[in-house]
Amino acid sequence: MTPASAPALVQETPYRYRIEPTGRMRVPGVVFASPGLLPEVGGDQALQQVADVATLPGIVDASYAMPDVHWGYGFPIGGVAATDIADGGVVSPGGVGFDISCGVRLYAADLDAAAFAPRKEAVLDGLSRSTPRGMGKGAVWDLSGADQLAKVLASGAKYAVEQGHGVQRDLDRCEDFGAVDDADPAGLSERAVNRGLHQLGSLGSGNHFLEVQVVDAVRDQAAAEAYGLRAGQVCVMIHCGSRGLGHQICTDHVRAMEQAMAGFGITVPDRQLACVPVESDPGRAYLRAMAAAANYARANRQLLGQAAREVFERLTGAGLDLIYDISHNLAKVETHRVTGGDGAAGAAGAAGGAGQPRRLCVHRKGATRALPPGHPDLPADLRDLPDVGQPVLIPGSMGTASYVLTGVPGGPAFASTCHGAGRTLSRHQAARAVRGQELRRLLESRGIAVRGASWRGLAEEMPEAYKDIDAVVEAAEGAGLARAVARLVPVGVVKG
DNA sequence: ATGTGC
């Protein structure tokens, strides 16, 4: 059972640590972090969660933690776990998170920082008005009823664009080209549907934001150019998810699996790890509902992006081109080579060495897919470039830098990397440390325009409550998870 | 994250 003390870490390389399998762990734990990040790597609970995930039926290679790992519901945030579907591998809602398909969308404007500066306050005012946010209701698109919601759930951003809320490029550059096709709107609870009807096109709260950013430094010229980014360019980044709908779906299926688990002979060290085989009725039902929430989240970001685009065009004359849209809370059925999780196994597999290709259920919770160059699922215009992988969008905490990375060959964690800075202080600790008004003054004095939803919400997101995003990205690069393409700094933030 | 919470 769960050991009382924190699991011991053994350093394997400067950016890779191992938790030896003990007790019911089926595979080792692997933590990617720099020595500098490690002492505060989420505390004992996050590492214990890495070890607990390693006990899940069908898990292969290792239970992975990204450099931004911290404590979460059941699984750590910043966790990656893959299960072998044909070998009784499970799916767990806790491995996806409550905010199903929470993710990031980045647009680039045909506008440089100097030309934007005189318009900054007006644009931020415009974005503040066009971006419903905060707890509860208010949305860009109030749906007519369950029939229209079903279309959103089935077709995601594709439906939004079909209805005039966007352009073809928005789909070409979106993960899964705007929609996953195995969603089942009919399987959702009435509560999930009701919560979804009036929140489409809304940011939410917590760490969700819409930011105007400027490309501060380009680290990889070829990839930046292919993506459509240049130094000094103005960008818009949107970070949000599936709102109350995804939350309700997670709640519904955790409950169902808690009941169903015993029937499959599954016991877990923490009830928050409730899971069932992928190949089971409740497993398939969860994945289809999760897919519906993924489509809702994409449509959500599509609508918020379109509203921002209209503000930009009206006030600056510049359009917004989508760079990419990627989720960091999702499970996906993918084929990878499985090698047993020893050291360089993942890299060797990807290079065509040892390891059998298996159909896996890859859980990424607070972790971002990072496909290597040449992968068939890349956008068509990026697919045939030799050293350019999938765009990876890493939002920093409020007032700090964000990053664009690219997927690399031979990634050691099923083509995954970090998702952001990762919390170090609780919301409560942060709110006690600073007042929202004070924080806004500080950010404004550093040239960052702030449009908040609540003073408390602002305080909870103080930069000091998060890890250093530069160090997290450095560790991700050092561990061979991804490569930096561009660093972006905020000039204006609309907070949920 | 979330009509913050058994």
UniProtKB/TrEMBL annotation:
Name of this chain's protein: tRNA-splicing ligase RtcB
Assigned keywords, A-Z: GTP-binding, Ligase, Manganese, Metal-binding, Nucleotide-binding, RNA repair
The protein's required cofactors: Mn(2+)
Chain residues that bind GMP: 207-211, 328-329, 395-398, 402, 419-422, 495
Note accompanying the cofactor annotation: Binds 2 manganese ions per subunit.
A Pfam family reported for this protein in Swiss-Prot or TrEMBL: RtcB
GO biological process: RNA processing; RNA repair
Keyword Ligase: yes
Biological source species: Actinopolymorpha rutila
UniProt keyword annotation of Nucleotide-binding present: yes
EC numbers: 6.5.1.-
Catalytic function, reaction form: a 3'-end 3'-phospho-ribonucleotide-RNA + a 5'-end dephospho-ribonucleoside-RNA + GTP = a ribonucleotidyl-ribonucleotide-RNA + GMP + diphosphate; a 3'-end 2',3'-cyclophospho-ribonucleotide-RNA + a 5'-end dephospho-ribonucleoside-RNA + GTP + H2O = a ribonucleotidyl-ribonucleotide-RNA + GMP + diphosphate + H(+)
Family the entry assigns: Belongs to the RtcB family.
Residues that bind Mn(2+) 1: 99, 208
Sites where the protein binds Mn(2+) 2: 239, 328
